[in-house]
Amino acid sequence: MKKEPQKADSLTQVVATINDRLRVPWISGARRFDLSLIPPLILLPVFLHIASWHFLLGIIVLTTLPLLVILYYYLTHRKKGRTLFFLSLAVFSLFYMFYLFIAEVVPRGDVNHIQLGAVTTGVALTVISLINTKRGPGYVRPHPTETHSTVTYHNPQSDIDAAYLNGARHQVVIANRVSSPDQTGESGTASVEPREGQKRNWCSVCKVVRPSRAGHCRICGVCILRLDHHCVWINSCVGQANHISFLLTLVLFVLTSLYGISLVLRSVCPQQSVMMALFYCPDVYNQHSTALCFTCAWYSSIVTGGLLHLLVLQLINVSYNTTQREVRLALREKTGRTLLWGLIVDTGVYCRGFRSNWVEFLTMSNALEPPNPKPTDLV
């Protein structure tokens, strides 16, 4: 109304205000509803149905959709902001593909009870493993014996990971002295200065000395034990406590998806082999049902291909006892040894051989201290 140009971040502020004011009724009181949950629930079914109308539309949609997701990733990643868009897209894609498998493929009579049970079991195990992964990556906290006092914030900061709070109020622990790397475990946030020899591992944000291989996530706002990377698809970091379950989630999803895709292609294009049917399936667009199944098979193949690439990288990193964060640092500082055109990066710091690396990876969660009971709120 004042005929003045709008600020560059005015739209972002409007969306943030709406996001903060939007509440849904809940048993324990109204809870904030994140608007980033909604777009995948609407756009994914619409795009897939449009892509099933004609093979040219299918090519356009299935090419544009990944590009839009990648663009949105870079826009949010540049701002270091948290979003539930990717988690919503991942979970809804899994359940929507399973729904279409039950509603469109199973009634055709080409899937027996054993195959249906295998797909259902795979989906259920994937969801259970994902829930286990979301329990937390393992946070860097000072040792409880060094705690002097605790300050409780009844309104937690928006940039703090919810799993870090574990349902409690945001609490900042004030310690008598800085924990040594061997004593740092699962307990709060110190607010003291580091010793001279510990400045390299000192986190000025969390006010804590990080143990070796730990790192601070600027998206979650906390320090993570043995930080691998922040995964937008689970809206959480992958660290020492949940790396095994994260890898298991990838394995279960890839195996279940590949098996489901093969069943769908055998049903809609029985005359062709599975690989040939994915690229050449005559008369598949004559019926909307078969065209939708074929389109969803292609969409699942694209998603599975991306996660298969991530799974291969994870298996290679575990075999060389390195994390994705350490790989990026080694490439940036040019201290790592690259093989197979950069697919394999050996930092040469923690590698102790293939067998020993996997034993250490599979047993690293045992080294975590058990979670401490929630401290009593201070008056």
TrEMBL record:
This is Palmitoyltransferase. GO terms for molecular function: protein-cysteine S-palmitoyltransferase activity. Its main location: Golgi. GO terms for biological process: protein targeting to membrane. PANTHER family: PALMITOYLTRANSFERASE ZDHHC23, ZINC FINGER DHHC DOMAIN CONTAINING PROTEIN. Residues 199-326 form the Palmitoyltransferase DHHC domain. The keyword RNA-binding does not apply. It catalyses: L-cysteinyl-[protein] + hexadecanoyl-CoA = S-hexadecanoyl-L-cysteinyl-[protein] + CoA. It is found in: Golgi apparatus, trans-Golgi network membrane. GO terms for cellular component: endoplasmic reticulum; Golgi apparatus. Its EC number is 2.3.1.225. The DHHC domain is required for palmitoyltransferase activity. The keyword Zinc-finger does not apply. Keywords: Acyltransferase, Golgi apparatus, Lipoprotein, Membrane, Palmitate, Transferase, Transmembrane, Transmembrane helix. The chain crosses the membrane at residues 56-75, 84-102, 114-131, 244-265. It is a multi-pass membrane protein. Belongs to the DHHC palmitoyltransferase family.
